[in-house]
Amino acid sequence: MAKMSGSQALVEALKRQNVEVIFGIVGGAIIPVHDVLRDSGIRHILTRHEQCAAHAADGYARASGRPGVCMATSGPGATNLVTGIANAYLDSSPVVAFTGQVNTFSANSSYMIGRDAFQEADIIGITTPITKYNCQVKKASEIPKTVKLAFHLATTGRPGPALIDLPKNVQTEIDEMKFSGNVKVRGYKPKTEPHPIQVKKAVKLLLEAKRPIVLAGGGVIISNASPELLELAELLMMPVATTFMGKGCFPENHPLSLGDVGMHGTLVANKLMLEADVLLAVGTRFSDRTTGTLDEFCPDAKIIHVDIDAAEIGKNVKVDVPIVADAKETLRVIRQLLVHQLKQRENSPWFSRVKEFNEQFQSEMNSGDCDLKPPLLIKELRKILPENAILTTEVGQNQMWAALHFETRKPRTFISSGGLGTMGFGFPAALGAKVACPGCAVVDIAGDGSFRMTEQELACSVMEKIPVTVIVLNNSMLGMVAQWQRLFYDRRYSAVKLGSVPDFVKLAEAYGAEGVRVGSLKEFSEAMKKSLKSEVTTVIDVPISPEENVFPMIPAGKGLNNVISG
Amino acid sequence: MSKEQNHIISAIVEHKPGVLYMVSNMFRRRGFNIESISVGPTEQSDLARMTITVKGDERTVEQVVKQLNKLIDVIKVSRLHPASIVTRELALIKVRALDTKVRSDVINYADIFRARVVDVSSESLMVEITGTSDKIDAFLDLMKPFGVKEVARTGITALSRGVKSVKIE
User: What pLDDT, on a 0 to 100 scale, did the predictor assign at position A522?
Assistant: First the structure.
């Protein structure tokens, strides 16, 4: 037991969670915490908007697998975090957020909770539907336990964001603090071991399958199950399609890789999914962007669904074999049982078909004339970047080009806002990823519309010395919406023309970053290579045609067989 | 689609502020309909029991149970099967009763239903009735011709029959 203030207890509790970095912005109701942070040895990275603090913490978490921490003051500071928290919630990312709050009581003034005090917002009420756990601490002595609980809940089971709201008087209150002891949550017992009977059923289906496919989602990355997935797929010669969130969990240069499935999935993945007789879905929630209309999704397949969140099973898709458990453990157990029952498969009619499709698809994707087409640029980028480089994306056409054409080979090297689709995510997430993995090159594939939403973090990247590369695929348009208006609204453009301001080269320079505009693939290649050696962030402005579409595409509400290929 | 009907779900939750908000917010957000909800303390002071009546098909109710289980402060969720439970609801009903003929009719009906008159004024009677929802509906139908001025119903509360009980450490 030690006597200390709530703020000191918070910082001590964070150190005990091995927190090294906090992304945030200070403000009136969180000054006592920052007063202690100043000499704590924990690095505080001052973002220029709280939303970016949350996204950076999210990028940090996804790149490293460790929880990311962000902090903001009460009221607008806290509400500015909301988009970032919702983003982390939908993509199951372990972000722990701390917010200042007005006093729980106030002897001489009305600056207290419930009286609409200055910069008061009900952040607990606001974030309840977008956090896995949130809590307003009422007494300083509860801080150690609450912090431990928040990190435990954020990182175990299906991960997700947690938020702790800290009234200012609780930050300054001095009390005896107890840091030892385990947290016990009686309403929370994530099940990690798969049920043996269900596993047997899954093994039987897989043994009998003629055309099995794996659908691997973000859960495979979260549970670090890539090695197990690779072993199982190779044992059965079973092709692997990934969801958008699963991109990177299986090496995309592997002969069994089909790439992403869904609205902007690869032709081969979307076609072969329809032919599957057994689908092994792991760590995916069958989002509408993955499945298309459910009536036409894998019509002939028996579905095995592995997920650690029981509520995901049967939510969207009817399942034949439900397995509520950790992905890594389940894949390991399934393989173990299979190894004894069959020899390593070398070839099969199904694999020949996969191979044939993959080759045909590759040649189609490689055709193209103009020099600075986004797909070619992204393929060129792959050649330049080392395998461990991390790619983040914004949201829209840039994101879908990146997903389709960037051959991702390792988990945690493709980071994108999948569930919420948050424009402006990629750049702050890139900063977070770079902080987590300073030895890796980090590149944000951006569009001009998305980058404009969080470009102010150039200041953070320069001042905090976090060099990344931002590639702005600049069509002076909100390109994906423009594409929809072209295809489905008779070219009636509405509210999508952004114009040619700002000049991104000058903008970068104004922040002390490097800016360069490129007009050919060769120039891009040179600029990109140079940026990898630069000590400051580089913005590469790539003017592209506003008429460019992302293909293939399945229109919203259609089935996987309704591919438009351009 | 299987057909929609009422299902009774019993949830043991942490007895602390914000839990009712968390639960009702989950129902709102996911578009589940609460027909009724009753909340009260249990034999353990740190636990509360929520009895929730949900209208929906089998698949919806399965999702409701899973989504409830997912909430950290919800400790135990059970679906109560109509054949093996006792359900009760309480209603207070204020009936217009201007003359003695009506008053004695209302009192007679109340006796038959084992309800009690709990308040009398010059123009009305208030009746307290406890029982299954069907019984209360039937009594209300009988009162309608007299003129029902106000009704307050608690919603269903329920427990399983027999020796089985839910124990939470």
Answer: 95
**What is the residue-wise DSSP string for A340-404?**
TTSPPP---HHHHHHHHHHHHHHHHHH---STT-HHHHHHHHHHHS-TT-EEEE-SSHHHHHHHH
Give the nearest chain A residue to B13 (CA atoms): A187
Q: Do A187 and B63 touch (CB under 8 A)?
A: no
- A19 has a pLDDT exceeding 60: yes
Domain A2-177 has CATH 3.40.50.970: yes
pLDDT band at A337 (very low <50, low <70, confident <90, very high): very high
- Tell me whether residues A187 and B75 touch, CB distance under 8 A: yes
- The whole-chain average pLDDT of chain A stands at 94
* CATH-assigned architecture of domain A371-543: 3-Layer(aba) Sandwich (3.40)
pLDDT at A370: 58
Strands A21-24 and A68-72: parallel
Enter the tokens of residue A443.
């590149």
pLDDT for the residue numbered A346: 72
pLDDT at B1 over 60: no
d(CA A19, CA A4): 20
A315 vs B contacts (CB less than 8 Å): 63, 66
- Tell me the three state secondary structure of residue A13: helix
Residue predicted with more confidence, A96 or A371: A96
Measured between beta carbons, which residues in chain A are less than 8 angstroms from residue B73? Answer: 187
- Assess whether pLDDT exceeds 80 at residue A307: yes
Contact state of B63 with A315 under an 8 Å Cβ cutoff? yes
Residue B104 has pLDDT above 60, yes or no: yes
Whether residue B101 sits in one domain with residue B76:
no
Residues B96 and B34 in one domain: no
Catalytic residue ranges of A:
50, 118-119, 168, 480
CATH number, domain containing residue B49? 3.30.70.260
DSSP H or E stretch at residue A58: helix A50-64
The CATH number of the domain covering residues in A196-357 = 3.40.50.1220
Question: Closest partner residue to B74 among A128, A187, A309, by Cβ?
Answer: A187
The SS3 assignment for B18 reads coil
DSSP A216-273: E-HHHHHTT-HHHHHHHHHHHT--EEE-TTTTTSS-TTSTTEEEE-STT--HHHHHHH
Tell me: pLDDT of B86 over 70.
yes
Q: State the best of B47, B72, B169 to mutate against chain A, taking most chain A CBs within 10 Å.
A: B72
HSE-CB at A321 with a 13 A cutoff on CA atoms is 26
- Residues of B in CB contact (< 8 Å) with A are 13-14, 18, 21-22, 25-26, 29, 59, 62-63, 66-67, 69-76, 168-169
Residues in Cβ contact with B8 at an 8 Å cutoff, skipping those fewer than 6 apart: B51, B52, B53, B79, B80, B82, B85, B87, B156, B158
**pLDDT for residue A360:** 82
Cβ contacts of B25 on chain A, cutoff 8 Å? 128-129
What residue segments make up the domains of chain A, in order of their start? 2-177, 196-357, 371-543
Q: Is the pLDDT of residue A363 over 80?
A: no
**Nearest CA to B22 among A128, A145, A305?**
A128
The whole-model pTM stands at 0.94
Separation between Cα atoms, residue A81 and residue A60, nearest integer Å = 16
pLDDT at A369 over 60: no
Residue A375 has pLDDT above 80, yes or no: yes
pLDDT at A465 > cutoff 60: yes
**pLDDT score, position B14:** 95
Q: Among B12, B66, B68, B169, which would you mutate to test the A interface (most chain A Cβ atoms within 10 Å of its Cβ)?
A: B66
What's the rounded mean pLDDT across residues A31-45? 98
Q: Is the backbone peptide bond immediately before A552 cis, with ω within 30 degrees of 0?
A: yes
User: In this model, does residue A50 exceed pLDDT 60?
Assistant: yes
With CB atoms and an 8 Å threshold, state whether A128 touches B21. Answer: yes
